[in-house]
Amino acid sequence: MRILTIGSQGMLGSELRRQYQAESKHEFIGWDRPEIDITDQSQVDKKIHQLKPDLVINCAAYNKVDKAEGDDHMLARTINGYAVGFLAMACKEINIPLVHFSSDYVFEGSNAEGYDEGSLPNPVSHYGASKLLGEQELQKNTDRFFLIRTTRLFGPPAASPDAKKSFVETLLNKARAGEEIKLVHEEQSSPTYVVDLAAAVRNFLDGEHAYGIYHRTNDGSCTWYEFGMKVFELAGLSPKVEAITSAEFPRPAARPKFSVLVSTKLPPMRRWDAALADYMKTL
């Protein structure tokens, strides 16, 4: 099978490339911004029709949550929203499936029980609204889609130097520099190891599954403070860490207070802390 992955220089795209290229079962083709501008509909149509892949995996995304509240508002909507529709239309025209990734930020975060695949989205930020727009554009423009929601990716850095930095490395750098660290002890969600997610996506795509919405995260949940403390424990570091509220750490974009993604269609992945321990061994 010829698999085209768009956004192949980001964290998830880079890991999918590594895993697919370690096998010979499928032909992996990775495109990023130098190869395709997904916001240009005519270019999307032309390039996907020329390549004629068997499957497209879209890992491209705008993920600067706070900047999406300001000057980058329309850029976020274009990349996370309308461009997904362009990809969906191109895939429908040559009758192939599209895999697209979304976020827990499509939910408002008021449900302490978490959100399953059928929960009604209600974002509280422009970033979340842009991700919801992508979901809507996907479902409007093709029936052959796998919409995979995930959250809080960590793991090996992306190939692109412009990609968002891993929170784990940011924490370790601050601790080793002797900085005082403040971490929000709210905003409960499920950290997800990109290596586990990529493997889960590959296994999922090799199976027989109905088109639709799926949730894929590591099992369990924590706050940013709890995640940070586990990082320091595993690294053998004891920095000064202060647990604070969201109100004490103001940011332009509102965050969901509780956004655990509940999977009702697939078995759970391993716990986030076990995955984190494995990742820390590689650093």
Total number of β-strand segments? 10
Give the percentage of residues in beta strands: 5-15%
The H/E string reads EHEHEHEHEEHEEHEHEH
User: Which strand order does the major sheet show?
Assistant: 2-1-3-4-5-9
The stretches of 5 or more residues where confidence is low (pLDDT under 50) are none
| Shape verdict | globular
Description:
There is one protein chain. The protein has 283 residues and is of the alpha/beta class. It is 36% helix and 15% strand. The chain contains 8 helices and 10 strands. The chain has helices at 11-21, 41-51, 73-93, 126-141, 167-176, 194-205, 224-235, 272-280, and strands at 2-6, 27-31, 55-58, 98-103, 145-150, 153-154, 181-184, 192-193, 212-215, 241-244. A 6-stranded parallel beta sheet has the order 2-1-3-4-5-9, sandwiched between helices. Strands 6-8 form a two-stranded parallel sheet. Strands 7-10 form a two-stranded parallel ribbon. The relative contact order is 0.16. The model has no long low-confidence stretch (mean pLDDT 96).
